[in-house]
Design a protein that fits this description.
Oligomer: single chain
Number of helices: 20
Largest sheet: none
Shape: globular
Order of helices and strands: HHHHHHHHHHHHHHHHHHHH
Radius of gyration: 20 Å
Distance between the termini: 40 Å
Helix content: over 70%
Low-confidence stretches: 186-202
């Protein structure tokens, strides 16, 4: 077993490199993402005795990786970009987030006895995740001090939800097409041109590489290394002064403010560094779990997650239909909420909804900030009712 902290960290970095190599080489791995692979490898390596379940490196990663990822990814956003998304997509995305909040609350209240004492925490974490993606799940789950094994099982469920939900969305696009077209009378929403396809094919690759490759300078690296530490220090001070507001919400708010500063927007590499930090975190998250407890917690947690997604779908598609939003917009907004901007990109390109790809990625990125607020709100509401 590898116990020396320096070797543990070196080994984890090698695991990240291996997971990235698998994603670049195999389409099947690309569909589930290298982050999911890191979670699975963390669970496997710890439970077969290659690395420990916990240790100094693990504690350091839990302390710094998620704060780094939150601050860096949000710093790459601009509030004025929301205007480019367009009113129908914004309406559909808000409806999707409301659906996730209602779903988390309803499932948390009705299933608390079966899922267990961590139900209110999981309700918040899943509600957050289904407003922007896995980063929100990690931030809220960690912020609520969720039991490690329960957290690992739920994180695995969340990570594995993206691709099945995407496939379900593709089926729904056909099954609900006539109903939405009669309601919206926007048959042109399904149309595309060859010029659109050619332009967005280039955009697709650029968007993917935004999270994995970057041309950055030493100055960029130094500032991006320092700003999250400064934000973390300030968040701890503010959290100590106002303990009712979690540290991660202070971090989110400060990152949103910093993102509007012109000199911060010029920094290169924030997304890549945040994605790297998430990979390390997911290895540690997987390693912290004892496989027996993960399996034991699996069925209730998966059912709990499916219930939240079901309510999300009813609300998102129902409000979209009532407000006469076209089906492609509703679908891609829902996917952006459930799986984040990356999965919104995937369904947009797969379904040839090229005009919606860039706007959906924009709202998905803002979901990283919005999801944290929604997640904690949901958790506190459920806790107030079920304890």
């Amino acid at each position: 077993m590898i116990r020396e902290p320096v070797l543990v960290l070196a080994f984890m970095l090698a695991v990240v490199a291996f997971a990235r190599w698998l994603e670049e080489r195999y389409d099947a791995i690309r569909k589930i993402s290298s982050a999911v692979v890191c979670t699975l490898l963390g669970i496997t390596l710890a439970n077969v005795g290659v690395i420990e379940h916990t240790g100094p490196v693990h504690e350091g990663v839990f302390t710094f990786a998620i704060p780094y990822a939150i601050v860096l990814v949000i710093m790459g956003t601009q509030l004025r970009e929301l205007a480019a998304a367009g009113r129908p997509l914004l309406v559909a995305y808000v409806a999707a987030c409301v659906g996730s909040l209602i779903g988390g609350f309803a499932a948390g209240v009705t299933m608390s006895e079966w899922v267990g004492p961590e139900t209110w925490k999981l309700a918040g974490a899943f509600s957050a995740a289904f407003a922007g993606g896995g980063m929100n799940f990690a931030a809220v789950g960690q912020g609520l001090d969720t039991d490690p094994s329960t957290f690992a099982a739920a994180a695995l469920a969340d990570n594995l939800s993206t691709v099945p939900y995407l496939l379900l969305q593709v089926w729904l696009a056909g099954a609900l097409a006539s109903m939405f077209l009669r309601r919206t009378r926007l048959a042109g929403a399904w149309a595309r041109t060859a010029a659109d396809a050619e332009g967005d094919a280039v955009d697709e690759e650029a968007m993917r590489r935004r999270w994995t490759d970057s041309d950055m300078s030493i100055t960029d690296l130094a500032i991006l290394g320092a700003l999250p530490l400064l934000a973390l220090w300030l968040a701890r001070i503010l959290s100590g002064m106002w303990p009712l507001i979690p540290e991660v919400l202070w971090l989110t708010t400060m990152a949103l403010i910093a993102a509007q500063l012109p000199w911060v927007r010029k920094l290169r590499g924030a997304e890549v560094l945040s994605y790297f930090a998430l990979h390390i975190f997911f290895i540690v998250l997987g390693a912290a779990s004892e496989l027996g407890r993960v399996v034991e917690a699996g069925a209730p947690i998966f059912t709990f997650m499916i219930a939240i997604i079901a309510v999300h779908m009813l609300v998102a598609y129902g409000i979209g239909w009532l407000l006469r939003v076209d089906l492609p917009t509703v679908s891609i907004a829902s996917q952006a909420a459930i799986g984040g901007p990356g999965s919104a990109l995937a369904i947009g390109m797969a379904m040839k909804w090229h005009r919606l790809v860039a706007p959906a990625v924009i709202v998905g990125i803002f979901g990283y900030a919005l999801g944290n607020y929604l997640g904690f709100s949901c958790a506190w509401l459920v806790q107030a009712l079920v304890g």
